[in-house]
Amino acid sequence: MIFQALIVEDDVEIAKITASFLREESWQCAVAHTGSLGLNMALQGSYDLIILDCMLPDISGVEVVRKIRQASLMTPVLFLTALDGVQDRVRGLDAGADDYLTKPFDIPELLARIRALSRRKGSIVVKERLVYGPLTISQDSHDGIANGTLLQLTGKEYEILKYLLRNAEQILTREQLFVRVWGYDSDAGPSVVDVYVHRLRKKLAEHGCDRYIKTVRSIGYMLRE
User: What is the rounded average pLDDT for all residues in the chain?
Assistant: First the structure.
C-alpha cells in the first residue's frame, strides 16, 4: 500500500527537505506553498497525513486546519512551524491539529511524531523492521539487533544504522547522514558523523558485524556485505 502526504509549507527549501526524507520512508508527497492551494488540495485529494506550516503567505495554517475539520475531513494534521509560544500551540491544537512541532526541528523527531500519529489514528502504516544480513532495526521499539543480540545504541547511533539499512548497498555521503540524523540546522558539522560511525562500529564489532559498514574514501559510508 502507498501512503500519501501533503506538505503545506511556504519555505521552498524546508518543503523540499521534508518531502525528501518522507520519500525515503516510502511516502508519496505533494507540496503546496500557499495556504489556499494547500486547502484546496486537502479537500480535493486523498491524503494519509498533512504537514502544515502556521505562517503562510495568504491564509494561516490555523485557518486551513479549521476549514479542513469543518469539512469533516479527519486526516491527521501535524503543524510544523516557527511559532513556539504556548498560546500558539494551544491555538493550533484547538483548531483541530493532531500534533505540533516547532522549527528548527530534527528529522528523527519528525518521523517519530508521524509514527505516533499512525498509532493514534490507525490509518498510517510504517514498516516495522529493516533487515540486512545479520543486522536488524525494529522501528516500533527503536532497537538495533546484530546476530540476534540487542545492541545498546544511543539515539544517534540508532538513526545512523537505520539510515544505512534503509539505503543498503548505496553510498551515503557524510552530508546526507549529517542532515538525516542531526538536522539541516544543527550547529555540529558533518565531521561528527565519523565519530558516531566509529562508535557504532565498535558496538557492532562485539558481534562480528563491524565489517558491514564500509568507508568510501573522501565521500562517506555504505552498508554492504
Answer: 87
Where do the CATH 1.10.10.10 domains begin and end in the chain?
129-223
Quick one: CATH architecture of 129-223? Orthogonal Bundle (1.10)
The ranges of the chain annotated as CATH 3.40.50.2300 are 3-121
The CATH label, of 3.30.450.40, 3.30.565.10, 3.40.50.2300, 3.30.70.260, for the domain at 3-121 is 3.40.50.2300
Q: What is the CA radius of gyration of the chain?
A: 19
Specify the amino acid at residue 12.
Answer: V
pLDDT in tens, 105-137: 888 889 888 888 876 655 444 456 788 999 998
Joined grid coordinates for residue 160: 545512523
The mean pLDDT of 198-204, rounded to a whole number, is 97
Q: How far apart are CA 168 and CA 177, in angstroms?
A: 13
The values of phi and psi at residue 196, to 5°, are -75, -35
Give me the mean pLDDT over the 133-146 stretch.
87
* Predicted confidence (pLDDT) per residue in 32-73, tens digit: 999 999 999 998 877 889 999 998 989 999 999 999 998 888
